Amino acid sequence: MKKLPWEGPFPPFRIFGNLYFVGTVPASTHIVDTGDGLILFDSGFQQTLYLVIDGMHRLGLDPKDLKYIFDTHGHIDHLGATRALAEMTGAKTVLGRADRDYANGTLDLTYARELGMEYKETFEPDILWDGGESLTIGNTTVTCMATPGHTPGALSYFFPVTDGVKTYRACLHGGMGINTMSRKYLEKYGLPFSCREDFKEGMMRLSREPVDIFLGNHMQHNHTPERYKEVMAGNAEAFVHPGESSEYALWAIKNLENMEQEEQNGE
């Protein structure tokens, strides 16, 4: 039987200190406890919201304490549950300005059709960022960097995480996938090929940022399953890998360049 796009539960767990994972195999969701409320990064598919809520409860996190939802970009697997979660908790929503029309349904570019789905849970973001903005909640200041390409409004977020003794700088990238920059996809929707250069420039900016904990909006980006096992085995710093975000950003550029070369070769 063919798996549905959202299928794949994963155990919720503490990544480090006040940083938690409550997502699924298809799409990652992270939470930070700021001491003055919770902030969540990417809500995931609407169909898996119950897993996010259940994961929060299993970790002792109350959804009623959620203050902000930061979405990395406007695809259904990352903001599909944002409307429902915001309505349930009263949390404010943050999104890249260029992806606003994805979220509110004006543009049907949430990648829902490619997944055999329909995006119905549309919403108007409360806060629209262009890159460079910041927001402080409790002991946590979230800053953002524009890293477009995968979508025009993709944002990467930076924030501190702490266990009360050590503090590390974490980064959640805005979207490394090159699937929406392929010639076939861009021509299908009449999108500009300039998004490829935007992507490369954004990844170069990201590569220059000092980061201790690199987070992916898909778990394969930062080896979440493997490091989860390390955490469960007692390694509290399994996700601490300075320089990993830089390596991944440079790899992402090379990955796009390889696709461009394959297209030129007619492959």
How would you describe this structure to a colleague?
The protein is an alpha/beta fold. It has one domain: Metallo-beta-lactamase, Chain A (4-Layer Sandwich). A seven-stranded mixed sheet has the order 1-2-3-4-5-6-7. Strands 8-9-10-11-12 form a five-stranded mixed sheet. Helix 6 runs antiparallel to helix 8. The protein is globular. It starts with 12 loop residues before the first strand and ends with a helix.
Looking at this protein, list some descriptive labels.
267 residues, alpha/beta, Metallo-beta-lactamase, Chain A, seven-stranded mixed β-sheet, five-stranded mixed β-sheet, 12 strands, 21% strand, globular
Rg calc: 18 Å
Low-confidence stretches: none
Counting H and I runs of at least 4 residues, what is the number of helices?
A: 8
Gross geometry: globular
Biggest β-sheet description:
7 strands, mixed
Give the SSE map.
Elements: E1 13-16, E2 19-21, E3 30-33, E4 38-41, H1 49-58, E5 66-70, H2 76-79, H3 82-89, E6 92-96, H4 100-103, E7 127-129, E8 134-137, E9 140-146, E10 155-162, E11 167-172, H5 183-189, H6 195-207, E12 213-215, H7 224-232, H8 244-264
Parallel strand pairs: 4-5, 5-6, 6-7, 11-12
Antiparallel strand pairs: 1-2, 2-3, 3-4, 8-9, 9-10, 10-11
Please summarize what this structure is.
The chain is α/β, with parallel strands linked by helices and 267 residues long. The protein contains 8 helices and 12 strands. The radius of gyration is 18 Å and the shape is globular.
